[in-house]
Amino acid sequence: MTQTNAGPDIAAGRLPDDAYAENFSDLHPPLNPHEALVVADRCYFCYDAPCMQACPTSIDIPQFIRQISTGNPTGSAKTIFEQNILGGMCARVCPTETLCEEVCVREVAEGKPVKIGELQRYATDHYMDTHETTPFARSAPTGRKVAVVGAGPAGLSCAHRLAVHGHDVTLFDAREKAGGLNEYGIASYKSVDDFAAREVDFILSIGGIELKTGMRLGSNLDLAELRAGFDAVFLGIGLGSVNALGIAGEDEAIDAVDYISDLRQAEDLSSLPVGRRIVVIGGGMTAVDIAVQTRLLGAEDVTIAYRRSQERMNASDFEQHLAQTSGVRIMTWMQPRALVRENGAVTGIELERTQEVDGTLTGTGEFTTLPADMVFKAVGQTLVQTDLGGAVTLERGRIAVDAERRTNLADVWAGGDCVLGGEDLTVAAVEDGKIAAESINAALSA
Q1: 232 close to 147: Cβ distance less than 8 angstroms
Q2: How far apart are CA 398 and CA 158, in angstroms?
Q3: What is the set of domains in the chain, with CATH numbers?
Q4: Buried-state track 19-44, b at ≥16 Cβ within 10 A, e below 16
Q5: Residues 11-36: pLDDT tens digits?
Q6: Considering the chain, what is the average pLDDT of its residues?
Q7: What is the largest CA-CA distance in the chain?
């Protein structure tokens, strides 16, 4: 089946001015104090809490909820920050429905879990609104210096914990702003009111952390020089390159991560050009984020094309439901074959139906062409290995680390998406940074 293509239709300002603010408003409006008490009262405060075991940062969830229920949101936030200094952002972006809330005993018994993520946001927002600094004091200066490369969740977590221990930290980042994917890579409706930047300021308020932006490993930053100038190095560099589709005309496909970055930094959303017809290749969170956001910018026909079944998509059930209720169509068992061009512009994409035979994905030879003004690729990212200068051991394209996040180099640690086994979750990156910081501190204190 082949559908007729038309010329590309890409334009800015597709919506009335007031529609942008409404479309990109907070996905989950914060709980008010009364609502927080009502939600907290549903918690059974389990002794052997499965929710706590499911949390990658091991937050004492029953404890922080109990503190909310007794009117102590400040104490609740302190409980959260002890394990996760980025608890505010994690409350907004983490797929709690597949982590702590999925194993909540009320979810298992009733199909309606305690809203742990919303309660976590309530507590951390309360604290950040009423305090200028984190609830930690620095230990006496140790005189030891640590370089943290990458100011995303892993790097910020590591830098803060090291500063608490009294070490002097220099935090490097390639971008103009710190925050990593929290600042540049998540959907705008998940983090409104410049929260990512405010959280960075909150973390840096501990003191002892010098932020240097515009510093990129492999460009104006060298790993060997960092090792020579610092007592330890932590790499939280993320994944700087996008996986290839391997299809004809791929150069015309748009990197979804780059577009989301432009959207996050745009002062005027009505200035962003968007097609009337959009096709997104991929099945993860980024695919959903770009699909939903192009719809919110005024695209009329948005399709996610994924090569396997919907159950195999990396995007959570909640994210898939969000896409579909936002008017996004999800086509499964479809893989890209070529971008279609007319008069020098993309007008569509050719897809091939797929099947799985004995665990192997194969094409069926059945093709269809979808009209598209813009085609986005959201098929994952990869590590830019040349940035590491060949000194760090890699496995399957990622940095190999041990349980303490040590690399093969005695003075270099790593964490977040760049390491082997990285889970592509903000909360997992925070835990990596925390574990590495404790290991670095132990090594420097020996």
Answers
A1: yes
A2: 19
A3: 10-24+242-380 (3.50.50.60), 33-130 (1.10.1060.10), 145-240+383-445 (3.50.50.60)
A4: ebeebbeeeeeebeeeebeebbebbe
A5: 999 999 999 999 999 998 999 999 99
A6: 95
A7: 71
